[in-house]
Every structure is written in structure tokens, then in C-alpha cells.
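RECORD TYPE: protein structure
NAME: HIT family protein
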Amino acid sequence: MPGDGRGHGPGDGPEPEDAADFPRQTDGFERLWTPHRMVYVAGPEKPKDDGDADCPFCAAPGREDSDGLIAARGEHVFAVLNLYPYNPGHLLICPYRHVADYTDLTAEETHELGAFTQEAMRTIRRVSGPAGFNLGMNQGAVAGAGIAAHLHQHVVPRFSGDANFLPIIAQTKALPQVHDEVRRLVSEAWGADA
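PREDICTED:
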């Protein structure tokens, strides 16, 4: 058999196999790609993580709620909008104290952080009716914490179809509400009975 012009002929080794001939193997995970967040995670606009003097979570409580994006204040923790949200209503529950690790929280802080997380879910359900939530903490920079030095619990509302092509194709995240409107709605609904 003569060569095919691409170096695949007699004596050139086996013919390359077509990937379409192999069964598809998956790991069972869905993927939510968010490349737009790299501007925040690794870019020049990333907040410093050099201690409480530079910490945006330490600075926010000293501002007016609308300026600091604070939705609610408690005795030990507060709820603040994520400056770079995955979805409208993406809240962070932060202790006032500048601590990095969940094990550093006092019993009172731990209790109020849990209660604020529950109230954040109730409030966001009243305000925008999401289909579900992602809750979580990234402990340490290696685990994905953008600001590792100040503990924060993410409360991310999820909506059917909220992961679309825009972030991947157009490096754009469609957010139908601006921060001020979301903060006002959440703040007004915080603590209201259902």
C-alpha cells in the first residue's frame, strides 16, 4: 500500500485511530466555567489579602450599607453582596473579626453565621425565587479563596439556565440586576416573615 502523503504508509507504523471510534468516558461531573472571574481572582484589580488594614471585608462595615454593599448586619457577622457575583443576589456572610479559618470562629460567631446563611436563603427566595443554592467556603488560597485571610460563606442563588454561553464565548456575564437594586431588595426583605 503506497503512502498517503502524511507519513502513513507501509513501514511508518500503525494508522492513527479516530477518536470517534472510542467510547466516551466521563467523570460524572458537570462543569461551570467562569473565566470572567479571573480578572478578580488573578488580575490587577484583585483586593489585597495582606491583613485587616487592606481587607475589603474589614472595610465594608465602616461604610454606609449602600456604599459597602451590605444587605444585613448582625452582632457577630454581616451579609454583603459579592462584588463579582456568579448570579444576582450572591451574598457573602462574613464575621466582623478578621479570621481566616472556620475553626477560628467563636461559638457565637459560628451560630450567627449559620443563622445568617439560613436567613440569606429565605430572603433570596422571597426576593427572586431561585431554583436552588450553592453554599460554601473556600478555606485558603489553594482552595480558591479570593480573600483567604478573612473567612466568608458564599450563598449563591441558582436559576434554571443561569449557566449559558455568554461567559465562555463572549467573556460576558449577564446580570439582569445592578448591585444597588439587589442590595436594596435583599436588605428590605431581610428578616421579614414569609
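COMMENT: The chain has a mean pLDDT of 80.
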